[in-house]
Design brief:
It is built from 6 helices and 4 strands. By secondary structure, the chain is α/β, with parallel strands linked by helices. The protein has a single domain, classed as Rossmann fold, CATH 3.40.50.2300. Strands 2-1-3-4 form a 4-stranded parallel beta sheet. Strand 1, helix 1 and strand 2 form a beta-alpha-beta unit. Helix 1 packs across helix 6. The two termini are 17 Å apart. The structure holds 4-nitrophenyl phosphate. The site of 4-nitrophenyl phosphate has 12 residues, from loops. The site of 4-nitrophenyl phosphate (4NP) has 12 residues, from loops.
Length: 162
């Protein structure tokens, strides 16, 4: 029997810009490496304002132009996600703090990691900047950061799954 897939959930605030972008890139890299079946990826937001919506049209446009079409609808993270997933990848430290407060037990809390901890070119805050109220270049920056971080994350997981 093959080992069960490693399950990951990328988490931002609204689940319409940054975390769907990271989820889409991670899935893309997994398929490119021929690793479908070894990983499952999802995303969620700590807020519920955009639940049920598709990714932000600016995120969709940037991602499509760069070869990673996105799908899915936004949802709010819930305590059951700490059982459902092996890792919860927070988009910045504020989201990581929120997730740790939501974790049902200390063991669940250890599943929370910062996505940018896997970035080969990190900044000091390890934050994926929120592009929602900024200009168009913010979406390309988010794409670049998520791409590098997901490459680093996947490389790490291939060495030491889970
Ligand atoms: P995200 O971006 O957390 O990357 O999905 C945001 C989306 C919506 C809002 C803020 C950030 N908002 O305030 O509605």
């Amino acid at each position: 029997m093959p080992p069960p897939p490693v399950r990951l959930c990328f988490v931002c605030l609204g689940n319409i810009c940054r975390s769907p972008q990271a989820e889409g890139i991670f899935r893309h890299l997994v398929e490119r490496e021929g690793l479908a079946g070894s990983f499952e990826a999802d995303s969620a937001g700590t807020g519920a304002w955009h639940a049920g919506e598709p990714p932000d049209r600016r995120t969709q446009a940037t991602s499509r132009r760069r070869g990673v079409p996105l799908s899915g609808t936004a949802r709010q993270v819930e305590p059951a996600d700490f059982d459902r997933f092996d890792l919860l990848l927070a988009i910045d430290s504020g989201i990581a703090d929120q997730l740790r407060r939501l974790a049902p037990t200390p063991a669940h809390r250890t599943k929370v990691h910062l996505l940018r901890a896997y970035d080969s070119a990190p900044d000091a805050e390890l934050a994926v900047p929120d592009p929602y109220y900024g200009g168009a270049t913010g979406f390309d920056e988010v794409f670049d950061i998520c791409w590098r971080s997901c490459e680093g994350l996947l490389a790490q997981l291939r060495q030491a799954p889970g």
